Amino acid sequence: xxxxxxxxxxxxxxxxxxxxxxxxxxxxxxxxxxxxTAAIGFSSVTTLGLLLGPVxxxxxIDSGIRQLDSGVIRNAVVMYVCVVAAAYLTSRQQYVxxxxxxxxxxxxxxxxxxxxxxxxxxxxxxxxxxxxLVARMTADIESMAELVQWxxxxxxxxxxxxxxxxxxxxxxxxxxxxxxxLVFPVLVVAARKFQRDSNTAYLDVREQVGQNLSxxxxxxxxxxxxxxxxxxxxxxxxxxxxxxGLYQSHVQSLRVSTWFFGLVEAAGVIASxxxxxxxxxxxxxxxxxxxxxxxxxxxxAQLFEPVQQLSQLYNTVQSSAASLSKLFxxxxxxxxxxxxxQALPSTGVVAVAGLGFRYPGTESKILKDxxxxxxxxxxxxxxxxxxxxxxxLAKLMARLYDPTSGTITFGGVDLRDATLASLRNRVVVVxxxxxxxxxxxxxxxRVARAEATDTEVxxxxxxxxxxxxxxxxxxxxxxxxxxxxxRLSAGERQLVSLARAALxxxxxxxxxxxxxxxxxxxxxxxxxxxxxxxxGRTTIVVAHRLSTIQRADRIAVIDAGQxxxxxxxxxxxxLNGRYTxxxxxxxxxxxxxxxxxxxxxxxxx
Amino acid sequence: MADAVPRIRAKSRxxxxxxxxxxxxxxxxxxxLIGLAWMAGKxxxxxxxxxxxxxxxxxxxxxxxxxxxxACAGIIVxxxxxxRRFFAxxxxxxxxxxxxxxxxxxxxxxxxxxxDRAQTGQLMSRSSSDLQQIQQFVVMIPITASNLAMIxxxxxxxxxxxxxxxxxxxxxxxxxxxxxxxxxxxIHPAVQAVQAEQADLTTVVEESIxxxxxxxxxxxxxxxxxxLSKKADDIRRVSIEAARVRARFLPAIDLLPQIGLIAxxxxxxxxxxxxxxxxxxxxxxxxxVALLVAPLRMLGMAIAxxxxxxxxxxxxxxxxxxxxxxSDAVDPQKLPAGQGLxxxxxxxxxxxxxxxxPVLTGFDLELEAGQSxxxxxxxxxxxxxVARLLIxxxxxxAGSIQIDGVDIRNLTLRELRQAVGIVFEDTLLFxxxxxxxIAFAHPDADQAAVESAAxxxxxxxxxxxxxxxxxxxxxxxxxSLSGGQRQRIAIARAILADPRVLVLDDAxxxxxxxxxxxxxxxxxxxxxGRTTIVIAHRPGTIALADRVALLDxxxxxxxxxxxxxxxxxxxxRDVLAAMDRPDDASVSAATSRGGGVD
Lengths: 605, 598
Description:
A: alpha/beta; ABC transporter transmembrane region fold; Rossmann fold; six-stranded mixed sheet; four-stranded antiparallel sheet; B: ABC transporter transmembrane region fold; 10 strands; 10% strand
C-alpha cells in the first residue's frame, strides 16, 4: 500500500505498460463512446471526400476528356463540388465532437483524481511532495490536451486515410497498388526507427529543458549570494554549460527527425515515378486507362503524409501515456483512513490507551505506549522539545492519522469506529497558521460546515469577537480575501480560522499553538478569541508559550515519544524534574524580565 | 560583428534580433540557398510528371526515362527538404541559445535593487517562453524566404503556361493565406482563455493541497471538490470554445485549395477537349496548385508568429536594456595588503529604498580591525541594510563606507566582495556537491581546505554522515538538510572565502534553539581575530560580539557591551523583549551568558 507508485517519476513506459494504460483510459472513456463514434463517423466521411477527388478526376479524364464529352466534365465538377462541400461540413463536426469527448474525458479525470487525492489521509500528503501532487493535477493532465485537441483526430484521420487509400487503389488497379506496396513498407520500417530514436531524443530534450530551467532558476534566486561572493563569471559559465547541453540535445533531436522528413518526401515522389513508369507500360498494354494512372499518382501524393504525421504523434502519445500512468497510480492508492459507522456521543472523556505510532514508511516509533485521559471540559497542554511527538499525539487525538497500536476513544467509542462526519463535528483541529482559501471571509468560515446559514456564520465570527472588525470592511464578511488570504493580516487570518471552529461548535478542540508572534495588538485579540473558544470545551493544546501552559489545568510533558510527567504547573515544578528544567530554559531564552516574577509566584504558590 | 553589442541598445524593436542574427549571417544565407535548391526540386516534379504523361505515356518517349527523371527529382527534393528543415531549426535554436546566455549574463550583473522588484517567475518566462516565441519566428525566416520564392516562381510559371487557367486555379489560394492569418488571430485569445482557466484550477488544487490540514480537520473535502468541479467545467467550456474556432477555420483552410483543383478539372478539362492544353499540362497544373497550399498556409502563420515574436522581443529587450546601477569604479583602487587589516568605517550614511521611506539617516559607526560588533534593533531599524550597503548591494545616497581607508565605491565589485563575506539569514545552497558549495568562493580550493572550513564551522561531523559525505548533492533537487546544517554549510562557505570583514546576518534565526549553541560555537571560532558584524536578536548570539550597537531611528542610538546596554538602556531591553520569541522549550539557551537566570 505504501508503494511509491503514486510518485513514479519515470517517463519511459515500455510498450506493454503503455498498452495497458491506453486500454484502461479507453474503459474510463466509456461514457463518451457515442460522441467518439460520431467523431469517427464524421472523420470517415471527410477522409473519403478527400480521396474521392482523384477518382472523380479519373472519371472526368477517361469518360469526359478522352471521349471529348464536355457534359461529363460538367458532371464531374458538380460531383467534386458536392463531395468537397460534404467534407467541409463533416470536417467541422469532427473537430467539435472529438473535442467534446476529449475535454469531457479530461474533466472526468480532473474531478476523479482530485476527489481521490482528497480521500487520502494526511500520511499520503506527508509522503508525496505537494509540488508533485499539484503537477499531477495540472501539467500531467494539460499535457494530454494537445492530444485531445488535434492529436486524436489526426490519429483517426491518418489511419482512415491509409486504409481508404489502399481500398481505392485496389479498386482502381491491383497492379498499380503494387507500387504503393513497394514503397510503403520501407517507410513503415523507417517510421519505426524514427519513433524509437525520436522518443529517446525527445525525452533527452525534456530532461535537458528541465535541468536548464532549474539552473536558470537557481541563478536567479541565488543572485544575491552569487553577487556577494563575486561568482558571476563562474555562474555564467555554469549556465552556459547546461544551456549548450540543451542546444546539443535539440540538435540531436533534429538530426534524428530530419532524415525521416526527407525520406517521406522522397518516397512520395519516387512512388509517383514508379506509378508513371509501370502505369505507362500498363496503358500501352491496354490494361489500365490513363485516367487511372493519373488518379493513382494523385492518391499516392496524399498517402505518405499520414505516416509522417503518425510518427510525429508518437511522442505525444508516449508522454500522455506516461502522464496517465502516473494519474492511475494515484487512483490506485487505496485511502487508508476508513469511515466507521458509529455516531459519537455529544460529550465525553477522551481516553488514550497504550498508544504507539510510527509514520508509515519510517523505522522508528514516534510515540511509545502513551496513556492519558482527558476529562470533559479539561484543558490539557502538551509540552516537550522539538521532535518529541507532542504534535503527532495531538493529531492522532483528532484522527488525522490512525495509531499503529493502542486506542483512542471519545465517550467510550473508538475513533476508528466513528463516522468521519460525526468525528469532525465533535473534534476540531485548529492549525497553527490561519490558512485561508480564495473566496470571501464568509466562504472561508463556511469551510467548516458547508450548509451553515449566513446568520450562523456571523454568530461564529461574533463568538470569536471578530464580527465587528470584518463588518467594517467595505464588503463586510463578503470581502474577497484574495489568494491565500493576502488581503488580511496574519492575525485576522487566525481569527477566521478560529471562527471556523466556533461554527462547528465541537466538544473537543485541538490547538497547535503558533510559534511565531503576531503584532502585539492583534496578538491580544487572538488570545481573547482563543480564550472564549476554549471555555466550556475539552481543549488539547500543543503549547509553545509559558502563558498558555500556565493557564492549562494539567500539563503533559512529552519526551522521546513518551509521557514523562503529568500534572498542574505547580505540581510539576515541585517535582523538580523534566518540566522544571524546561521551564527555566524557557525563561532564559526570554529575557523579558516580566516572566521571572511570574515563575517565582507560581513556585511559591 | 564587433558592433553587435552596442546595436542591441538600438531603439528599434528588431534591433536585438538583427544584431544576434547578423552573427549567424553566413548560416542563414546557406539555409536560404538550400531553400532555393529545395524549391527548384519541388517545382521540377509537377513539370516532370506532366512531361511523363504527355511524352512517356501519351507520346513515344520511353516512359522509364521520365520515371527515372522524376525519381531523381524525388531524391533531390528529399535531400533538400531535410537540409532546409535542419538548417532553419538549428539556426533558430542557436539564436535562442545565444540570447538566453546574454539574458542570464545580464541577470547576473543587474543590481540587487532590480532583483528586489523583478519576480523570479517573470525573469524565468523572459528566458524561456519569450525566447521560445522568438525561436519559432527565427525558424520561419529561411523557410518563409524559400516559400515566398516558390509562390512567386510557380505563379509565374502558371501564368506563362495558361493565364486564364492560372487565374481560375489560383483565385481561392489568397483566401488560404487570409484564413490562416484570421485563424492565428482568433485562436490566440481562445488559447489564452484556456490557460487562464487552467491557472484558476491550479489555484484551487494548490490551496487544497497546501491547506489539506484544514480540509481534513473540518471534513471540507466536498467544499473543495465542488470548487474544483466548477473549475473543471470552466476549462471544458472554454476548451470547446477554442475547438469551435478550430472547427471554423481549419476545415476551410484544408479544403479551399480543392476549389482550385475543381476549377482546373472543369476549365482545364474543357481546354484539353478543345486542344488548347495537354493532359500532362492539366495534371501539372493540378500539382502546382497543390504545391502552393502549404507555403501559403505557413505564410499566414509566419505573420501571426512574427507579431507575437515582436512582443516577446520587446519584453526581452526591457531586461537587456536595463543598465546595472551598481558597477565597477572606472579607475579602481586596491585595498592595502598586509596583516591586521579590516577596519570599517561607516561615515554619516543616508539611505532609502524608496523616496518616502528613509532607512538610515546619519548612520555613523567605526570598527577597528579584528573587532566584532552586534547590530541590534527592531524590525525596520536598518540593521540588515547596513550589511547590504557594505557589499554594495545598494549604493548609499549620502556619506561613505570605507574599508581600511578606501571608499568601497573606488574598488572593483569583485575585490570588495572578496574582502567582505556574508552569511545570510536564508541560506541558499546550490544544486551541487557539499564540497562545491563550501568551495563556492574558490572553486579550485583543495579538499583539505574544504574540510578544515567545515570543521571550523562544526559541519564536518554531520557531513561525514551524509550518504556520500562531501560528494552529496545539495540544493532544491538534492539532499535536504536541516536549517542548522544548512547554516553551518553557509558558515563554512564564508570561512573558506577568508574575508577580511565578515557579516553574519541573522545566521541563527532559522535554527532550532536546541541546536543554536552548535552554531554559536562555530560562529565564535570564525569571529576570532576577524572584523565581524553580527546581526542578531537572540541574547546568546549577541553576546558573542565585543560590543553591541543599538539601532534606532536610522542611526546608532547607543553603543556598549551587552551587559552595559541591558543595565542602562530601556530601549535595548524593549527591543530584545519584542524580538525574542518564545521558542519551543529548549535547554540550550541556559548556556548563554545573557539570559540572567538564577
